[in-house]
């Protein structure tokens, strides 16, 4: 029925290709393109072995719009799933507009020389996508992505008003390396070392990086963990779309070992994103660091434990205060067995596939640029249970 072009053959791209291949009735043809063809071919071989399906592979420099346009015209997909890096969002959106193809991604655009997490650049494409009758779905990963859909589900089925939102992301897994990041190290470290920010009473409040923490007792035996307040991009769209919100925060767990390594790397200047001269060459320290750290796509084999990501929401239902929690638990080893990847890539690649499936089957339609919470959460919530990310909801008695 539909041909998709997936761009980016990293951890998330790998999961998404495997998951699309499991649904042949929707994804009749799958093309995977990235900078390095060998990575695309390795994913295609794994999919062939697991599902018997053939994936077409190709190369592209996704920073280059004419190359992207040629690639899209060559393969003629209905939808491009962008799983490269946030730096490529705008070039891929430009190419989609030029070729008349729908667009989906999992992370908002970031300028390469500034760790800014804002939707303003992509929201500025609203009119252009509308005029072309095309849909761009932004942030169809887990956070952003499923967390936005959890909020839309809570608003639709559990609350009349939502007052407080805490998105809490716990990775209780262990990959056995002294230091590694579970998704692209450059993007991860830019995010973690940025100032924290949360929304309260109509304004953004900025905090020093990782300066604010709480203990949260995670369900199903994961137990209490220290969580750090961070800024995360879905806060911006949720604050815009969830009417009546008084406070919105995002939290993530980090081990002491991770934080100690990060502190040292920061202190010695290895997390800098500006250019330094080395032997007459321009080098960005964080980009160099990425090259010597373990590849996230290679962590799957050795990662054990589970992730637990969810939304704790407080508000009003039928005139009464309500305290509600919705979460997913994902097991690293189970994910690896199914699609040769750890749970952090799994929890991102599966929602990318589901968002694409809903667009291709006409369950989610629209013209313009959309964040996940603007669409009907019901079909997405149903597909999460079917495709590997089941959710649980709890209402706490006050
Ligand atoms: P990886 O670094 O593992 O993979 C990125 C892939 O993109 C690589 O295959 C890389 O190719 C390719 N790529 C990078 N630059 C270009 C380019 N100019 N042209 C073509 N291909 C390019 O990252 P992840 O898979 O971990 O992350 C993918 C995306 O998912 C990121 O945007 C990340 O922010 C997002 N993400 C979202 C999450 C969510 O919950 N919403 C959670 C985790 C990640 P090569 O290897 O050849 O360099």
TrEMBL record:
Top-level taxon: Bacteria
Residues covered by the Saccharopine dehydrogenase-like C-terminal domain: 141-389
Saccharopine dehydrogenase NADP binding domain mapped to chain residues: 4-137
UniProt protein name: Carboxynorspermidine dehydrogenase
């Amino acid at each position: 029925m539909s041909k998709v072009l997936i761009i980016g053959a990293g951890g998330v791209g790998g999961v998404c290709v495997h998951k699309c291949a499991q649904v042949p009735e929707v994804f009749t043809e799958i093309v995977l393109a990235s900078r390095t063809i060998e990575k695309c071919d390795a994913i295609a071989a794994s999919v062939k072995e697991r599902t018997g399906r053939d994936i077409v592979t190709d190369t592209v420099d996704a920073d280059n719009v004419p190359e992207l346009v040629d690639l899209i015209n060559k393969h003629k997909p209905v939808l491009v799933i962008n799983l490269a890096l946030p730096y490529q969002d705008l070039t891929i959106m430009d190419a989609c507009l030029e070729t008349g193809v729908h667009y989906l991604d999992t992370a908002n655009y970031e300028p390469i020389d500034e760790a800014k997490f804002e939707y303003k650049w992509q929201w500025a494409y609203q009119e252009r996508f509308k005029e072309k009758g095309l849909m761009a779905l932004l942030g169809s990963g887990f956070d952003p992505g499923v967390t936005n859909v959890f909020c839309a589900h809570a608003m639709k089925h559990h609350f009349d008003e939502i007052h407080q939102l805490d998105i809490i992301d716990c990775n209780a897994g262990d990959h056995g390396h002294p230091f590694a990041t579970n998704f692209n190290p450059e993007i991860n470290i830019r995010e973690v070392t940025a100032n924290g920010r949360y929304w309260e009473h109509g304004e953004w409040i900025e905090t020093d990086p990782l300066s604010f923490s709480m203990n949260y007792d995670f369900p199903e035996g994961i137990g209490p963990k220290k969580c750090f307040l961070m800024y995360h991009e879905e806060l911006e769209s949720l604050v815009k779309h969830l009417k009546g919100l008084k406070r919105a925060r995002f939290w993530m767990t980090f081990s002491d070992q991770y934080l100690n390594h990060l502190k040292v790397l920061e202190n010695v200047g290895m997390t800098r994103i500006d250019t330094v001269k080395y032997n007459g060459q321009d080098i960005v320290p964080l980009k160099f660091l990425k090259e010597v750290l373990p590849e996230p796509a290679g962590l799957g084999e050795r990662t054990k434990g589970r992730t637990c990501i969810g939304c704790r929401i407080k508000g009003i239902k039928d005139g009464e205060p309500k305290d509600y929690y919705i979460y997913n638990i994902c097991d690293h080893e189970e994910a690896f067995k199914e699609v040769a990847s750890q749970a952090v890539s799994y929890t991102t690649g599966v929602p990318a596939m589901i968002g694409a499936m809903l667009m291709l089957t006409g369950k989610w339609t629209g013209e313009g640029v959309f964040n996940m919470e603007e669409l009907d959460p019901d079909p997405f919530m149903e597909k999460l249970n079917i495709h590997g990310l089941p959710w649980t909801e709890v209402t706490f008695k006050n």
